[in-house]
Amino acid sequence: MNEEKKIALKLEILAREKEAIRRKLVITARQLAVTAKEKESARRSLVVTARKLAVIAKEKEVARRKLVITAKQLKKMSETLENKVLARTKDLEQIRSRTEAILTSIGDGLVVVDKDGKISYINKSFEEMLGWKSGEVLGKSMVQVVPREDQNGIKVLFEERILTQVLSGQKFVADLTNPFYYIRKDKSRFPTSSIVAPVVLGGKIVGAVEVFRDITKEKEIDKAKTEFVSLASHQLRTPLSTVNWYSEMLLAGDAGEVTSNQKKYLEEIYRGNQRMVELVNTLLDVSRIEMGTFIVELKSTNIVRLVRSVVEEQKPQIDDKKITFLSSFEDNIPLMQADPKLLRMVIQNLLSNAIKYTPDKGRVEVSLFLDNKKNVILKISDTGYGIPKNQHNKIFTKLFRADNVIGKDTEGTGLGLYIAKSIVEQAKGKIWFESDENKGSTFFVVLPLRETRK
Amino acid sequence: MKSKTKNRTILVVEDERPLVQAIETKLEKNGFDVITARTVEQAARYLEEINNIEAIWLDHYLPGDKTGLDFVAMLKSPDSKWKKLPVFIVSNTASNNNVRSYLRLGVSKYCVKADHRLDEIVTEIADFLDNPEK
To answer: Which of A69, A132, A272, A312 is the most buried (most CB within 10 A)?
Structure first.
């Protein structure tokens, strides 16, 4: 190879290399262009992000400012609230101590129980009257802590306690007629009068409040009254006995013969005086009933015989008025536990009323029959004046006499039915009547037999 | 009216003058010899002094410190020589407690003046003395 050829070859190689480089450069340039574009787009997105961040930052700042304000407000509010609560608490405290002071200072004993009858509050008077300290009785059953007994020292059963009845939703009961006693911690007792009321929250009984007081003083006054009545009646009876006995002796001729006219006058004196004696006796009975000094002596009593003897006793009046008298007694009426004297008074009152308030030639019926073997029923009916409908509810009231008989020539005190009702109810019986004016009346008495065998 | 061969002596303890007179008259008409006293003390003295007293008619409330009840308590005490003497209480104080106390002490009868005729009471006493075991 010659030189020229060699150079030409070398040049050609160079040219080729150049071309290769140029191509490479073109490629690189293209690549660079692409990168530049990418960079530009990245820059742009960065700008957007930066702007967004700026916005968020601004928002954040706004929010922060708001929060600062709210926090301040909250602080202020909480301070106000705190102050208010403090003031309110103070008020409440005042009210509470006021209430407490009032409850504590009540002269009557006071006890609050929950729905189970457990003591949740007692006042000072409770402590003083019963000898228990608050700490000893809180949470304990009132009925157990403070036993209650009747006049005769018989304990009132749990289920019969007013407190129990009130808590079980029974209607409010306040029995002031029968005195009862509360037993102190030291087992001594005092007569009590109490009132129990339920505590109702949202329509439900959640407990009860009982207020009670010591009625020793009242009892003493009552006793004095009884003694006074007894003494007064004694004083009344003495002159009555004098009139009674002297007119009796005059009538008997103990002071010489009396003319028939004198006899008539003496008989009037005697009868008038007899009425006075009966009146005093009736008044005595009423005062005994009212003062609870009626002594009940239960005995095995034959009620049929009792009714028969009362009828026998009133036979003259029945015959006088030509009254048709009928009686019927169921067979096998057993002996019953009753006070014959008191039972007799009931029968006497009802029968004498029937006779008294039935015009001549009327009809009176007496019957005795059993009901379920547990009760005996006495039924006394007449065809008399009857009781006006509008006075039915008053007929057992003391001293009440119906309009339609006051005008008639009948004696009466308005005490008979009052006494009868008191006796029947004391014996745990019932008394009622049916009556139509000018047709007659029927009285019913239901008495528990409390049967006794001979 | 029963005729008696020998009169019975009865001590009437009652303070109300008109009543005493009536009681005395009625009892005498029924064949009793009557001694009257106004107080428990007086009655006790008569009992000691007069030894043929067969019965006592006694009121409850009497003047002085002692009531009929005190007198009966004394009469019926275990070592009393009048333990068996029948006592009839005739009083207007029918307090249940008094009646019970009298009957517990062993009096023969208790009756309320105002509720009884005088001749009724006298007859009852006479009958009782005739048949003491009844």
So the answer is: A132
